[in-house]
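User: structure tokens for this one?
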Amino acid sequence: MATLADMPFETLQAGMKFKHPEHGAQIILDLGHGPLGPAIRFHDSDLYSGQMPKMIVDPHQGDDEEEGDIFVAMARSTYPYGAEQWEYLGMVSAEELAQRNWQWFQVGCPHCGFAHRLLASSVSSGQRRCRACGMVFDRPTQPVT
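Assistant:
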């Protein structure tokens, strides 16, 4: 059984399916780099989103958080923490894509030409950091035919 921990980040790709005991079956929609490092955008979990975790303040402890809590939360939501719990199930099927109204999109890095492939329901735009060279760019995605 292969797990997410067995796969270097560079080999991951949109469309891979994984099963997690807590998060269930998840499909990778997009990959990139966020402020905390490598980012994996699953279809129904933001665990490895690469963003700062939302802190839940306990109303019984007042407004002060214990020192270090933010660092524990960051560590738990940063890839590859816990990656050994994600069992690889294979690639998404054409039937699953149709059922979810997703299609393949691609956008090339203007600096190095790396082709970023992702799954989405419509064309998207916005800034992204190239997985290959690190350049930040803003280009709309194009459907893959």
